[in-house]
Design a protein that fits this description.
Layout (H helix, E strand, L loop, with lengths): L2 E2 L1 H8 L3 H9 L7 E2 L5 E4 H15 L4 H12 L5 H37 L5 H9 L5
Antiparallel strand pairs: 1-3, 2-3
């Protein structure tokens, strides 16, 4: 079994040392063993866990959600069905965020169109007045 020093595992996991320390302090990874000279030694299992954390973050999960999944997996209280349900909730949340962003984008495009019109909408004229802009 290979053990890694803090800098080595941080490099392999493509994380900075502060992030590694944060994960350790918040229970996302176990406290590492120590060498005879006091250096922290991280296992392959920790590297696998760090990869999982990084991938889960990329998928939009928060560290709190990740920590909850990891702690439930430790005591065996999470099933594949539970995990699928979490994924479905995350997907639903993302879809809601996308819908909000699309609505915001639509509003901005309409505002831009209205600003470019020769005959401006009274609401647009009011916005221009508030911003001290001349039409």
């Amino acid at each position: 079994m290979t053990d890694y020093l803090r800098g080595q595992i941080a490099k392999l996991a493509e994380l900075n040392i502060e992030t590694l320390r944060y994960y350790e302090n918040h229970g996302l990874i176990p406290s590492p063993a120590r060498s005879e000279s006091g250096y922290r030694l991280y296992s392959e299992e920790v590297l696998t866990r760090l990869t999982f954390i990084k991938n889960a973050k990329f998928c939009g999960f928060t560290l709190r959600e990740i920590e909850k999944a990891l702690s439930k997996s430790q005591d065996g209280s999470i099933s594949v069905a539970d995990f699928i349900a979490v994924i479905e909730r995350k997907t639903s949340s993302i879809n809601k965020e996308i819908a909000k962003k699309e609505q915001t984008k639509k509003m901005l495009e309409e505002l831009k169109t209205n600003l470019q019109m020769a005959e401006k909408n009274p609401e647009v004229l009011e916005v221009l007045q508030i911003l001290h802009m001349k039409s």
